[in-house]
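Researcher: Structure for this, please.
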Amino acid sequence: MAKRRPSGDGMVRKREDGRWEGRIVVGHKENGDSIFRYVYADTQKELTAKLRQHIDIYQGVDLTEQSRMTLAEWLDQWLENIAGTIRPTTLARYQGAVRIHIDPHLGSKSITQVTGKDVQKLYDALASHGNQITGKGLASSTIRGIHSMLHEALDAAKQAGLIPWNPTEEISTPKFTCKSKQILTDEQLDTFMEAIQKDDIWHDFFYMELTTGLRRGEICGLMWQDFDEAHGTLTVRRTIHAERGGRLTAGETKTGAGKRIITLPPSTAQLLSERRKQTYSEWIFPDPLRPERPTRPDAAYVRMKELLKKAGLPSIRFHDLRHPYVKHTTKIFSLRSMAFQAQAYPDARRKTRGACQLHRGGQSQSPVRPLCNRKRFS
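Model: Predicted structure, token format:
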């Protein structure tokens, strides 16, 4: 039986056409046969330099037969492997990025032949004309997301013995170009508060958002078991997201740190206490038509857009509603909001005088809204 040749072992020969050819062992098949990497040069000296470079790269590396697959084939296999470990929406986003952005540029290339220059060329193309609809460049955040996914996929390929190194580590992470966020001004926030004040169904949902800064899916995923009325706290432990086909599922929070206990402003705690008395659903914010189900995140988004349009406010993203939580949790905001409440509800002045503190750092105050005319979700 022939001796198994170690990775990095090589040989040199002169071809009939006058060029020099070198090959090195880069791995082994299941039956023990060697897998070779071939290098070519015009002179023996040039070939020797190339071989030395490749020997250093592949020293200690033992690739498998799968290293012959293309990048597209590996990405398809990798996505299949991780499908059960990530959210369906994340999987769909990854699949779209591979199909639309990566495969057309690098998919047909052998995974062992993909270099850092190839990856950088891909990112440059995406930044220049990556949008398949408009022909314009992709946002920097989108390219960074593709980079993160590709880095993870190639890291898995390295661990599986398909490539000797991760080519995404040869280049810098795409820079993030921060665009100014469009958030509501003090006056616009007043207008939005007036708008939700008139909406018996959605007021509490958006009031919760403005006073806690929770994510949309986190608010939809709140259950009464998460609310500690005695201590005025709320445990955030799940998020609601829609799968393909529209089915709602409850999953883990966006990050590990997303699981947390927050201290509610007294006004929000009071609002939940009153709301709890008038509902039979296990969800704090159930679907208005099907209270056995949580509110759909997309329904909250649509309603927010309707309220903004009706009030003549900028069409901001739902995520940008979280920023007024940070920006407006100041004493000035508290006093202004208290004045608004006192004007809108003269009988509630005594209650608003004891306006509460918006925790999440315990830095500011928030108005108490008189609880009246609450509809029953049952």
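Researcher: Any notable elements?
Model: The chain has a mean pLDDT of 79. The CA atoms of residues 97 and 146 lie 7 Å apart.
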